[in-house]
Structures are given as structure tokens and as C-alpha cells.
């Protein structure tokens, strides 16, 4: 199973996907800036690319998870894998929430704005607030169970597909040799699906062009500067979290964070242009398998991580929530902030599969705590997409690192392959016996 990628070949850097997506992004920014009306009209190109990818997510998660779990045979290892994944997700989530909270407390980007919530126009956020009121812990858990076996795929709900795939994989392993013909069909189907993803990725530069041209054309180049201190603070926090927390975890697994970023450069550029990690989910699954992580681990951790391991979203939620409190002169005690973290530990898990994603979860969180005015979220509506650049990047890298951690923890990480691809000097010397170039 391989993803068809554009290789440099005789075209050099021009033939590399990351460069083509970057070029499409730059052209989109220029068009949206110089011709806003035309730029806004480019939205269908970005939407079409995202829809093509989303079309493939359900089937790819299904075949990957089923093949990985059925291949394990030992069902106890499946339970152990799930438990370790959830423990890791919660630990990193808590770290992200605390770091985001401490950073905005120290930076104080909203101080001095003196916004009166009563003067804020609620019309622009009514849809998000209405959706947020519909969210609850019970409804979120119930939503994991699909109405029918097929609806898990038709409704494009990642957790529902994962739920069905785990059940099917466990059942396929339980029937033993009688399930071998089905396994062969799963393998062949998987190869074909990843081949399709390879075809779709040829359109990634066009999708990036359309998405960014619409953003700049719709909100204007000035939107890139509005509420600048919050934007700068959030991107700094994302960088610090990535380097200190994810970098340290990477080092423990034997992987170099910088080499991992280089390895995922195509996916990083695509996510930056589309502000959606869904667009690279199939490629991320395939690339992590190529790093020496066992298929069963990759197939479980990445889909689960897309709902439970949202490091960037957690940074966003604490940063923006406290910014809005500062902007509206809402006093938050230490206990209020600890309560906010406790609520976010639960509500942040609902940031996947919900229309409006992090923005809806933010509204739901503020409504739950009842301390910060919900109406204040209108202040960041115009720059939400800019902030999404940072949170989607951290979510992507966070899930890649999570796969490495769980694979190493389970003893299902091929260190030789990892050392060759993105290993640290320490790992390369120990495993390969050579000094890295």
C-alpha cells in the first residue's frame, strides 16, 4: 500500500508536492489581496478538494483499522492499546491546557480592550451558540454509536467509523482462518483506496489556492493584522508547546522533531492552506507506517487521536477563553481557571465531527462555565481562521508524535526504520552504528 507522490525527478523542487501547494497558497493570497471579489469566488476549489479527501476518510480508516486489529490476533493487546492511547491523550491534553492558560495569563493580550459585552452584535454567532447548546457529554457519547452500519460512513463521523471498524476487526480475528478471504479483500481494497488518495493529491495545489484566496478575499488582507497581539501570542504558544513538549516526547521515542517536521512537510503545507487536518489523514496513516510503526497501532491511534488528542485545539480554547475574559474585564480567580480546565478536559473531546469545530466547543465551554460572556466570542470570529493555522498544525504534529509514543510503548516500533528516516543522532549511532550526515 503506497501513496502516489510527486517526486522531484528531472523537475527538481518544482515536482515536489509541498512546493506546488506553497506556490498555490502564495498565488491565492496575492489574488485575494488584489482582487477580493475574484478571490472569494475561488472558494469552490478549496471546498471540492476537502470534499474529495473527506470522501475517502471513512473507507480508509475502516480498512486500516480492520486489517491492523485482525492481524494482531491477541485481543488483549487491542484493549491495552486503547488504554495506553487514552492515558497518553489525557496527559498531553492537560499539559496543553495548562500551558495555554499560563501563557495568556502572563502575556495579557486582551488587557485594556475594555469591551462591553452588551454592545456586541450577536447575529454573527447565533448559529455557533445554537449548535453549542445542543452539545452535552451524553449526546457526544451516544453519537459514537451510528444509527446503522452504513450511516457511520455516510455521515462522515470519524469515531463512528472507528467504532464499527474495531468491532469488525475483533470479529474477523475471532473467526480465525475462515476470515482469511476477507482479509485478502481488505488488503486489496486498501491498496486501491490509497492509490485513489495519490490521484486526489495531484489537485492539492489547486485546493490550497482556492481555500486561501477565499480567506483573504472574504476577510481582506487587513484581517491578517486585526487583533494582532492575540494572533502573535497564540502562534508563539503553539511554537513553544511543539518544541518543548512534543519535542521532548519525540526525543524519548528516538525521533528528531526537526526531521519529523521535514518528513511531514507536504502535509504541513496542505494543512496550513486548508486549515483542516482531515485533508491529510489518509496520508498521515500511510506515512507513519513507513516510519516503522505497526499498522494496528497507526490504524487505531490516528483516528482516535483526531477526536481525543487535539493539542492545538486545547491551546486555542484556553488562550481565547482567557483573552475574552481580559477583553471584557471579566475577573477570573484561580478556582475559576481550574474549573475552566476541568470543563475543557471534557468539552475539548467534542471538537471533532462538529460543525464549526473549535469555535462551537468554545461557545459550549463558555456557556457551561457561565463566567465569561458567550457573546464575546464574536470578537474573534473574523480571525478564527487565522488562529486555526496554528491549532491545526499542532494537532497534526501531536497525532504523529502520539503514534510514535504508543508504538514504542507497545514494543511495535521498528527502530531501524525510524533511525534511517527521522532518528536522532543517539538512535542512529545505537541502531545503525553510523554517524548521521
From TrEMBL:
The keyword Transmembrane helix applies. Its main location: membrane. PANTHER family: AEROBIC C4-DICARBOXYLATE TRANSPORT PROTEIN (PTHR42865:SF1), PROTON/GLUTAMATE-ASPARTATE SYMPORTER (PTHR42865). The chain crosses the membrane at residues 12-36, 48-69, 81-104, 156-175, 196-219, 231-255, 354-380, 386-407. PROSITE patterns: NA_DICARBOXYL_SYMP_1. This is C4-dicarboxylate transporter DctA. It comes from Stenotrophomonas nematodicola. It is a multi-pass membrane protein. Keywords: Membrane, Symport, Transmembrane, Transmembrane helix, Transport. It is found in: Membrane. The gene is dctA. InterPro entries: Na-dicarboxylate_symporter, Na-dicarboxylate_symporter_CS, Na:dicarbo_symporter_sf. Pfam families: SDF. NCBIfam families: PRK01663.1.
Amino acid at each position: 500500500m503506497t501513496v502516489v507522490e510527486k517526486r522531484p525527478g528531472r523537475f527538481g523542487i518544482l515536482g515536489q508536492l509541498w512546493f506546488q501547494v506553497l506556490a498555490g497558497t502564495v498565488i491565492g493570497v496575492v489574488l485575494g489581496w488584489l482582487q477580493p471579489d475574484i478571490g472569494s469566488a475561488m472558494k469552490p476549489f478549496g471546498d471540492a478538494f476537502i470534499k474529495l479527501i473527506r470522501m475517502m476518510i471513512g473507507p480508509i480508516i475502516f480498512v486500516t483499522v480492520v486489517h491492523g486489529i485482525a492481524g494482531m490476533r491477541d485481543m488483549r493487546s487491542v484493549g491495552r492499546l486503547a488504554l495506553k492511547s487514552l492515558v497518553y491523550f489525557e496527559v498531553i491534553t492537560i499539559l496543553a491546557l495548562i500551558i495555554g492558560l499560563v501563557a495568556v495569563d502572563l502575556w495579557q493580550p486582551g488587557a485594556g480592550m475594555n469591551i462591553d459585552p452588551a454592545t456586541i452584535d450577536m447575529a454573527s454567532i447565533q448559529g455557533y451558540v445554537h449548535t453549542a447548546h445542543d452539545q452535552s457529554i451524553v449526546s457526544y457519547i451516544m453519537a459514537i454509536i451510528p444509527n446503522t452500519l452504513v450511516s457511520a460512513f455516510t455521515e462522515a463521523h470519524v469515531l463512528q467509523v472507528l467504532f464499527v471498524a474495531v468491532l469488525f476487526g475483533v470479529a474477523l480475528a475471532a473467526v480465525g482462518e475462515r476470515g482469511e478471504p476477507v482479509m485478502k479483500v481488505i488488503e486489496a481494497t486498501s491498496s486501491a483506496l490509497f492509490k485513489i488518495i495519490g490521484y486526489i493529491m495531484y489537485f492539492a495545489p489547486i485546493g490550497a489556492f482556492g481555500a486561501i484566496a477565499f480567506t483573504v478575499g472574504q476577510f481582506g488582507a487587513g484581517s491578517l493584522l486585526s487583533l494582532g497581539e492575540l494572533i502573535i501570542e497564540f502562534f508563539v504558544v503553539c511554537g513553544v508547546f511543539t518544541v518543548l513538549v512534543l519535542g521532548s516526547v519525540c526525543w524519548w521515542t528516538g525521533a528528531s522533531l526537526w526531521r519529523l517536521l521535514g518528513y511531514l512537510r507536504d502535509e504541513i503545507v496542505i494543512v496550513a492552506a486548508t486549515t483542516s487536518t482531515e485533508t491529510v489523514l489518509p496520508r498521515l496513516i500511510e506515512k507513519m507506517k513507513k516510519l516503522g510503526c505497526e499498522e494496528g497501532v497507526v490504524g487505531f491511534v490516528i483516528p482516535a487521536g483526531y477526536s481525543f488528542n487535539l493539542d492545538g485545539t486545547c491551546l486555542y480554547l484556553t488562550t481565547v477563553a482567557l483573552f475574552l475574559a481580559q477583553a471584557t474585564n471579566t475577573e477570573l480567580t484561580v478556582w475559576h481557571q481550574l474549573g475552566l480546565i476541568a470543563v475543557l478536559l471534557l468539552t475539548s473531546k467534542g471538537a471533532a465531527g462538529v460543525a464549526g469545530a473549535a469555535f462551537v466547543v468554545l461557545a459550549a465551554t463558555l456557556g457551561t462555565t457561565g463566567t465569561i460572556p458567550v457573546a464575546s466570542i464574536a470578537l474573534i470570529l473574523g480571525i478564527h481562521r487565522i488562529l486555526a493555522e496554528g491549532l491545526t498544525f499542532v494537532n497534526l504534529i501531536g497525532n504523529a508524535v502520539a503514534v510514535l509514543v504508543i508504538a514504542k510503548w507497545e514494543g511495535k516500533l521498528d527502530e531501524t526504520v525510524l533511525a534511517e528516516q527521522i532518528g536522532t543522532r543517539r538512535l542512529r549511532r545505537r541502531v545503525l552504528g553510523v554517524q548521521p550526515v
